[in-house]
Design goal:
The chain is an all-alpha fold and 273 residues long. It has nine helices and no strands. The chain binds protoporphyrin IX containing FE.
Length: 273
């Protein structure tokens, strides 16, 4: 497989492995396209306002609690959060490119350290924004994002520990899981967009308390994690049928992600809206 990883391939690929590899590459490229659009939004919208101190400009977006006059700590936490958001989103995409791992291992190591630091900062800072600053509309949503933060912290520790011990196959598995849960807030935005386009917004409540909101509060991390788990298992010891089925699932996921990302750009992230 060209993009996400080739470590399950043997010298003679197992039946179905080439399909799995191609589908994983396609899915990665779809994620990369969507996350590059998200990064462009953060760089164009949040960087100029946060770096110039014009925090009030954040509130042009429909945030729960963006800039609050007088709340210096809360505003600074928010600024650091959105600045780090671009670092982790770009860093994760770079980290998964095998050519970089193979040819420039030092880039992989240093980008990996930066990625882990930004994962810690976003998870801990996000927990503070949620519970310390009180940024939530309903409790289920707050618990869902808290679960994501705990998964980020756990998987980051496990990926780091395996890398330190040079257990690279294990490191790869935890790093892929970490990438998935660290992308959960992006999956959530893409998920809302696809669902909104497909159903006109069925099950979405005004206070993010409809059945779809409650589902997505947990599905934003657990659903992509389940797909990643199927991919890892099919790659390691799946039957040809399991590999082909997982390849089909990855292909479908990639198409959904492309549609959701295009929608998110046109309706949420583009500077022209
Ligand atoms: C790890 C990857 C993460 C990224 C890339 C990220 C990115 C962002 C971005 C871009 C915003 C600005 C809102 C927007 O314009 O969409 C934001 C806001 C926020 N994030 Fe995160 N975030 C991450 C993780 C987390 C986690 C784990 C939590 C909670 C535990 C969290 C809690 C929040 C909160 C409470 C806000 C304020 C939302 C509002 O006021 O409407 N974030 N995040």
């Amino acid at each position: 497989m060209a993009t996400i990883d080739a470590s399950f391939a043997t010298t003679r690929p197992a039946r179905g492995a080439d399909w799995l590899g191609r589908a994983a590459t396609f899915c990665y490229l779809a994620i990369a396209a969507g996350q590059l659009l998200f990064t462009a939004f953060i760089l164009l919208f949040y960087y100029p306002s946060s770096l110039s101190g014009d925090f009030a400009a954040w509130n042009a977006k429909p945030l729960i609690k963006g800039f609050v006059p007088g709340d210096t700590a809360g505003n600074l936490f928010f600024a650091v959060h959105v600045l780090m958001a671009a670092v982790i989103t770009l860093g994760g995409l770079v980290q998964l490119i095998p050519a970089i791992r193979g040819r420039w291992p030092a880039v992989h190591r240093w980008n990996g350290r930066l990625y882990l630091i930004s994962a810690l900062a976003l998870a801990l800072g996000g927990l503070w924004l949620t519970w310390g600053r009180g940024t939530w509309l309903n409790l289920t949503g707050a618990v869902g994002i808290t679960l994501d933060a705990l998964l980020i912290l756990t998987f980051a520790a496990l990926a780091w520990r395996a890398a330190r011990a040079r257990r690279f196959a294990e490191h790869r598995r935890w790093a892929i899981r970490l990438f998935v849960v660290a992308s959960a807030v992006w999956f959530m935005r893409v998920g809302y967009m696809v669902w909104g386009l497909a159903t006109g917004g069925a099950g979405i409540g005004k206070a993010m308390d409809g059945p779809f909101d409650l589902f997505l509060a947990f599905a934003n991390s657990l659903l992509p994690l389940a797909v990643a788990e199927l991919y890892l298992r099919a790659g390691a010891h799946g039957t040809p049928l399991a590999r082909r089925s997982t390849a089909a699932l990855l292909g479908l996921s990639g198409l959904i992600i492309l549609a959701g990302s295009a929608g998110a750009w046109m309706m949420m992230w583009s500077p022209y809206i």
